[in-house]
């Protein structure tokens, strides 16, 4: 990354962090973001939502849920063992105590695995579902939580969102909900 681009990214991250500083320390905001961050750990929230979706009536609900869980697990390997090892970005400095417990990952800061998993899962769970806004809203809260709890820079989260959406689209192409044989008549 060129020094001018790195400077622009650092300035962007600092500006967004200052906005979150206005929210940090407010008990109800901390509670929402810390819980969202914890539920995003290891794809827990997305597994719960996929399980609930699989229990809903309809042939495609179970297939959609399985696809989302498999794709989210696969993206975790790609991001955590692949991309993060390439970028090796340091996490934001965090010299203050957290008001609530937060797990501190050992991996690189870029891209945010929580944001990647959230938007990959939301992309897949939302397909053809009238609850699409719920999935994307929860993905947004989980992604933003990583900035709030100071585990990621804003640019890490944006990168994670973009990668998650891309991986979700790829999964849609690789494993479409409608069987290919039913579309050819």
Short description:
The relative contact order is 0.17. With 185 residues, the protein is an all-alpha fold.
Would you give an account of this structure?
It contains 8 helices and no strands. It is mainly alpha-helical and 185 residues long. It has one domain: Vanadium-containing Chloroperoxidase, domain 2. It is globular and about 50 Å long. The mean pLDDT is 89.
Biggest β-sheet strands, sense, barrel: none
Q: Rough shape? A: globular
Structural class designation: mainly alpha
- CATH fold title: Vanadium-containing Chloroperoxidase, domain 2
Catalogue the unreliable spans.
none
Report the total helices: 8
Strand content: under 5%
* Count of folded domains: 1
- Under CATH at level 1, the class stands as Mainly Alpha
String of helices and strands: HHHHHHHH
Helix percent band = 55-70%
Using the 3D structure, state the CATH architecture: Orthogonal Bundle
Beta-strand segment tally: 0
From the alpha carbons, calculate the radius of gyration and give it in angstroms: 17 Å
> Termini distance?
51 Å
- Mean of residue pLDDT? 89
Topology:
Layout (H helix, E strand, L loop, with lengths): L2 H19 L5 H14 L3 H11 L4 H29 L25 H14 L5 H17 L5 H21 L5 H4 L2
């Amino acid at each position: 990354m060129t020094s001018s681009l790195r400077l622009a990214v650092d300035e962007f991250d600092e500006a967004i962090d200052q906005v979150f500083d206005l929210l940090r320390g407010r008990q109800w905001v901390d509670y929402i973001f810390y819980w969202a961050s914890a539920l995003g750990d290891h794809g827990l929230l997305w597994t719960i939502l996929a399980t609930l979706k699989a229990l809903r009536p309809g042939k495609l609900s179970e297939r959609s849920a399985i696809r989302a869980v498999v794709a989210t697990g696969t993206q975790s390997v790609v991001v955590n063992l692949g991309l993060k090892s390439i970028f090796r970005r340091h996490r934001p400095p965090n010299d203050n105590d957290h008001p609530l417990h937060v797990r501190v990952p050992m991996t690189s800061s870029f891209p945010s695995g929580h944001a990647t998993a959230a938007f990959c899962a939301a992309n897949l769970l939302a397909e053809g579902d009238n609850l699409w806004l719920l999935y994307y809203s929860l993905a947004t809260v989980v992604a933003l939580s990583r900035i709030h709890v100071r585990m990621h820079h804003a640019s890490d989260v944006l990168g994670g969102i973009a990668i998650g959406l891309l991986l979700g689209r790829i999964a849609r192409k690789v494993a479409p909900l409608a069987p290919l044989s039913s579309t050819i008549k």
